[in-house]
């Protein structure tokens, strides 16, 4: 079961990497951008709160986790690692084997230091330390989800993401997948998400790596195309639950040196 779960979850949000230089704190007007490796407990709580609220904007995730708080929590910890688990002592021996989150994380905060937006991505060919305990959260999620939702993860979800990746004009395994960019609902349209997209472009340019992401609703599509300046790609249907479905659209960015 664990291997099946790992395959499907990795097909939804890839886990490959190339090493990037660490970024200093960047302050721009009303936005403070930070790269987070090991969050404080307050930061972890805030980030998970933003993500949980934003899941409501993704039809398939809303359906998958509706009424399933523990699987939802485990799905987040599967990607982020034990640093975000308030049941584990971050300074104790239980976390010593994982000094790094399960993905790259950037946040945008207001001038009071309150995190308003979070962006997570994985780099091609990189192995993250937090992957070592992923099986713990994978097993919990797999056991707690109802059978129809387990089947959906194993079948429809993985197939749809594979179909979307196949439409990209570069090799997905040699690119960066932005797994998500979420902003607190009360802080949207204030530039936090746009600043994180700018940062993602800088990372892409500096490392010569294209990046891509998927959008699941019209608001996100408009944001990535108009405010983010990303290239709109193909749209595929993502079925879920009792004949319902939603559309999933790819957006891409190629650094200048790869556009020739």
From TrEMBL:
One Pfam family named in its UniProt record: Acetyltransf_1
The protein's name in its UniProt record: N-acetyltransferase domain-containing protein
InterPro entries in alphabetical order: Acyl_CoA_acyltransferase, GNAT_dom, Trichothecene_AcTrans
Domain N-acetyltransferase: 118-256
Gene3D superfamilies in UniProt: 3.40.630.30
Organism: Kwoniella europaea PYCC6329
GO molecular function, one term: acyltransferase activity, transferring groups other than amino-acyl groups
């Amino acid at each position: 079961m664990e291997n099946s779960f790992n395959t499907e979850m990795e097909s939804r949000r890839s886990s490959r990497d190339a090493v990037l230089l660490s970024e200093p704190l960047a302050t721009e007007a009303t936005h403070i951008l930070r790269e987070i490796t090991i969050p404080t407990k307050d930061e972890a709580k805030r980030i998970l709160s933003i993500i949980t609220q934003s899941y409501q904007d993704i039809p398939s995730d809303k359906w998958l986790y509706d009424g399933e708080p523990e699987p939802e929590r485990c799905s987040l910890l599967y990607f982020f690692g034990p640093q975000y688990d308030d049941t584990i002592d971050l300074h104790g021996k239980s976390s010593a084997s994982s000094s790094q989150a399960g993905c790259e994380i950037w946040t945008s905060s207001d001038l009071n230091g309150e995190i308003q937006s979070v962006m997570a991505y994985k780099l091609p060919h990189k192995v993250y330390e937090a992957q070592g305990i992923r099986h713990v959260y994978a097993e919990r999620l797999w056991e707690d989800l109802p059978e129809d939702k387990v089947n959906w993860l194993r079948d429809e979800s993985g197939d749809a993401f594979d179909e979307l990746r196949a439409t990209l004009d570069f090799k997905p395994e040699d690119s960066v997948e932005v797994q998500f960019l979420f902003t607190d609902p009360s802080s949207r349209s204030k530039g936090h998400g746009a600043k994180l997209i700018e940062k993602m472009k800088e990372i892409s340019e500096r490392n010569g790596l294209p990046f891509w992401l998927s959008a699941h609703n019209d608001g996100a599509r408009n944001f990535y195309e108009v405010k983010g300046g990303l290239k709109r790609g193909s749209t595929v249907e993502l079925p879920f639950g009792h004949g319902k479905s939603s559309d999933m659209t790819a957006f891409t960015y190629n650094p200048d040196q790869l556009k020739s």
